Amino acid sequence: MEPKGQEILIRALELNGTGKRVLNAMKKVPRHLFVPEDMQSVAYADTPLPIGHDQTISAPHMVAIMCDLLEITEGMTILEIGSGSGYNAAVMAELVGKNGNIYTIERIPELAELARSNLERAGYSNVTVIHDDGSCGLPEHAPYERITVTSAAPEVPQPLREQLANNGIMVVPVGTRHQNLVIVRKDNEGNINYRTWGEVIFVPLIGKYGF
Length: 211
Fold this sequence. Notes:
Layout: H1 3-15, H2 20-28, E1 49-52, E2 55-57, H3 60-70, E3 77-81, H4 87-96, E4 101-106, H5 109-122, E5 127-131, E6 144-149, H6 158-163, E7 164-175, E8 179-186, E9 192-200
Parallel strand pairs: 3-4, 3-6, 4-5, 6-7
Antiparallel strand pairs: 1-2, 7-8, 8-9
Helix pairs in contact: 1-2, 2-4
């Protein structure tokens, strides 16, 4: 572990305006356990890193931004599309606490197993990793108070809109060459509002409701 590197990262995120709860969660997650062994020296650099299969672990600042936008509180049930190496799920697991649950779906079997192994090694028991087509969501545990998508969709997938609980929030990158991070809010009556946060760059969402 590189505590100095982590300390510098957290300080930079704090200066960037990351909320206190998200900062505290990210302090507790050992990011070096979620990156390949040959990337250990840059585990706490604020940059995306390759994790194999043409996929990446998101830059810490992007994880922080998405978690802040989701307004996660303790005890929530959250659906994540795109487990990757499991890092983002670990941060959200800290935010929901022991009474909350994270369901995370990964389409690449090797990465699903990697995420499962990483999360177990890091001590997270409130995260369930599922190998499946994330663009279809996970209807058996719906509705979800929060949904986060870590790959860019051509449009907000209909199943995910349906599986979002009333008063829920979803954050999803949308677009092809030019992607925008979209914040989806569903009110108490099920009406949906969309707001664009800004431009982002993510790998494409592959699946029935993806590319």
